[in-house]
Amino acid sequence: MFNRILLSVAVAIVTTVTAFAQPKLEVIGGDTYDWGKVKPPKEGYLEATIQMKNTGDKAVRITEVRPGCGCTKTDPDKYDLKPGEVSTMKVKLNISPTQSGSLTKSITLSWADLAGNDALKAFRSNGTVVPSGADTNIRTGYLYLKADVQREISFMPSTYFSFNDLKIGVEATSKIEFVNNSDGDVTLSDWKTEGGLVVNHTGRVVVKAKGKLEIVGKIVPSAKGNYSGGVKFKTTHPDNQEVDLRAYGFVQESTSPVFQNGSVKP
Fold first, then answer.
1. Three-state DSSP string of the chain
2. Which is deepest, 47, 88, 125, 218, by most CB within 10 Å?
3. Sorting pLDDT into bands at 50, 70 and 90, what band is 102?
């Protein structure tokens, strides 16, 4: 009876050790890299160096580093890590020309027990039996990239005029808001349009500090198919000396009130 009790205790201890001896991979500094408040980068992206550490007592393998939409990464310099070892990679957070305000993207990190992953690969490649007790599980975590983009000049809702349901001979309107987030006045001038686009400004316009200006674009399509046009103008802001707002849409033929579906309405 005493021997049975000892055996039960031994099994419980082994089970407990196995449960806690899991492969561990952690991002040094935490799972969120935050650039804080930043100006729009000229390169079009923000870059950082990320280090991942094996904080467990078993060797681990990084099985995947998958960037989400809007971010990229370089390959880690190490995929197989002994306890205490560190793997390093560079990540980029892409900033679009219209991005302003808070931005959060994520990168998926996956890792596994090194021995268990080798056993799983051997089974998949040549049918080698996976040893009893081998840990073949894949763990997953996330690295979050954050930034608060402070853009002194921004455009809402975007940097182009979007025309929907265009029809030949029918006037259509689209609007863009020029937002001056800077502490000084900005003057707009030298307006030049193309593609038949007409805007509601032609001369010098002053947009006060922290102010806004509505730019209204109008067109009367004359031909069926894809439409493109736009307006260019100059500003006194050093980061936006020339602005090019494009205009897009698709023109359909107008529906006649007399002829519909090939027949004449009575």
1. CHHHHHHHHHHHHHHHHHHHCCCCEEECCCCEEEEEEECCCCCCEEEEEEEEEECCCCCEEEEEEEECCCEEECCCCCCEECCCCEEEEEEEEECCCCCCEEEEEEEEEEEEEHHHHHHHHHHHHHCCCCCCCCCCCEEEEEEEEEEEECCCEEEECCCEEEEEEEECCCCEEEEEEEEECCCCCEEEEEEEEECCCEECCCCCEEECCCCEEEEEEEECCCCCEEEEEEEEEEECCCCCCEEEEEEEEEEECCCCCCEECCEECC
2. 218
3. very high
CA dist list (Å): 122 to 22, 79, 116, 176: 21, 18, 10, 59
Q: Does residue 218 sit within a domain?
A: yes
- Burial grade of 77 (CB within 10 A; 0-12, 13-18, 19 or more): exposed
Judge if 248 and 143 occupy the same domain: no
Whether the per-residue pLDDT at 21 is higher than 80: the answer is: no
Q: How much is the pLDDT for 98?
A: 74
Looking at the fold, whether 137 and 237 belong to one and the same domain comes out as no
Parent domain of 68 = 23-149
Can you give the CATH number for the domain in which 199 is found? 2.60.40.10
- The C-alpha atoms of residue 40 and residue 99 are separated, in whole angstroms, by 8
pLDDT of residue 124: 87
Q: Residue 50 domain-assigned? A: yes
Same domain, 30 and 145: yes
